[in-house]
Amino acid sequence: MADELRRAIVDGTLGPGERLPSERELALRYGTARNTAREAVRILSEQGLVTSEHGRGSFVRRAGPLIRLGNDRYSPRHREAGVSPFLMECAQQGKEGRFEVLSVARMAPPADVAHRLQLPGSEPSVLSRENVFWADSDPVQRVTTWIPWSIAEGTALVDDEVGHPYGIHGVLEERGFVMARLSEEVGARMPTPEERGYLLLPPGVPVLDVLHTSLDREGAAYELTRFVMRADMTGLRYDAPIE
Amino acid sequence: MADELRRAIVDGTLGPGERLPSERELALRYGTARNTAREAVRILSEQGLVTSEHGRGSFVRRAGPLIRLGNDRYSPRHREAGVSPFLMECAQQGKEGRFEVLSVARMAPPADVAHRLQLPGSEPSVLSRENVFWADSDPVQRVTTWIPWSIAEGTALVDDEVGHPYGIHGVLEERGFVMARLSEEVGARMPTPEERGYLLLPPGVPVLDVLHTSLDREGAAYELTRFVMRADMTGLRYDAPIE
DNA sequence: GAGTGGTCTAGACCACCTA
DNA sequence: AGGTGGTCTAGACCACTCC
Q1: Span A101-139, pLDDT tens digits
Q2: Which end of chain B is more exposed for a tag (fewer CB within 10 A), N or C?
Q3: How many angstroms separate the CA atoms of A125 and A102, rounded?
């Protein structure tokens, strides 16, 4: 039953956005109990093909165009444009991007962050900044940045509004930290319930989990950022020379 | 009920690999029907926290160490080692890597591949090679490579066994195609039923979908590869200069 | 054979949406 | 008000595993 529905969806018999037959209707049509029909719809929802909306029905999910985060987002070439690369990508997709500051606080870094910054994980040795990025009315990324307190102390980084035209990396450059290389570790997983809440994720949508490290000319890490991105609306692109 | 179990798992009360109470046991303990207890276990399984094994029980999933595919896997520096980078990564994790050739055939490329190679999608203009990569007894990646037929024709690339010490890129280099840059587009999604079959994926495990493009010194694309990787056992790492 | 998860039935009530 | 999905009950049989 799930297979037949799946075929109808990939064939295009059921186009994107179309409503599936109701659970009661499916049960009747196949001569099964409603629970069984419901299970079929659940399987499609787990595969990310279908979204159920309480009181309205179940719908074929529409494949929205991806917002792709490229590694060129840190390029000085894009500085001249004066727009944050996320907002630029959004504009290209005809969407309006914005972001929201969740918190700015001095704290002890998580173990993996502490290790990469070569800082103790037991002391409040970093400044942490949390943001949520939106495209139109959808939250699409949850972003956490960690900067050694010794670097952040006394700068605009500790303010809610950074207020620098080039964002946090503009402030960091003025303190002498210029990004020469990046290292990004990419994984994917199902969201935690907390992340499902922040990103309003329907079932069957995984997240991309990216841990970004900024390295200076000496190869020392001076800033880390974790991006948790909903994978149905965002992706990544890396363009790099072979070394 | 799912929340309580979840807490027990993240707290460590239920350690990795441990068996959950059976569905009938949970139902009894909470005074609910078995279906309700079952639903709680299903939710955890969807979150990737738990795997159910028919006839045995449900178990807390153990977080295996990741095999990370780095962009340095194409570096000429690694050529000297003489080992494929996937096998190297496996060895680092104490695993034995191997791969299996599923098919080698001349065919018409999918639309996105045709576009990037600037070839017509309606003719058999590419050689396609499909592999599955294994780490110990787990299939972890399904890999499809497309090479313009004009390049592949008459080379060892059309054979089941490539037989070149440096694999397909060794053959391509001898034909004058040296990788100068790469471009990789990364996404994540739930697997198709076909992929679940190839990769023996339990529920709640997404896949990373990577479309790799090899570019020569002139910036022209001459080879594409799509990696579909199970995200609970593999990840990616990109180290690149800021340009 | 006893215990497990996988599937299924035939109901029931609730919460939500649309008209 | 009527239809939708969300949750739940109290059973049943099957397929699998382990002893």
Answers
A1: 999 999 999 999 999 999 998 999 999 999 999 998 889
A2: C
A3: 20
